[in-house]
Design goal:
elongated; two-stranded antiparallel sheet; mainly alpha
Length: 98
């Protein structure tokens, strides 16, 4: 039995070839799930924020900040496409908020 703050939990032994590291650092002894939903949310946020700042900087006549923000928005868009393809290929059928 281990204590973490006020809560205590029991560390389970690795099952079915699970790595020993997960039994040591995870309260449940399981590997973490995919972070594609978080990555998608962050890519959407980056696309919106960087796109808005690129437009604002462009209208204010600030060329270099506009170019930098546009490039970052493009990187966020590419990441969003990659995440969407991986989620589709994975075939979970989960929405962003599940």
């Amino acid at each position: 039995m281990r204590k973490h703050g006020k809560a205590s939990y029991e560390v389970r032994a690795p099952e079915n070839g699970q790595s020993r590291i997960w039994s040591e650092i995870s309260p449940t002894g399981e590997r973490p799930r995919s972070a594609l939903n978080l990555r998608m949310a962050l890519a959407i946020f980056g696309l919106v924020v960087c796109g808005a700042f690129a437009i604002l900087a462009g209208t204010a006549g600030l060329t270099w900040p506009a170019v930098v923000m546009a490039v970052l928005a493009l990187v966020a868009l590419v990441d969003l496409v990659v995440v969407a393809r991986r989620r589709h290929r994975r075939g979970d059928g989960h929405t962003l908020f599940e």
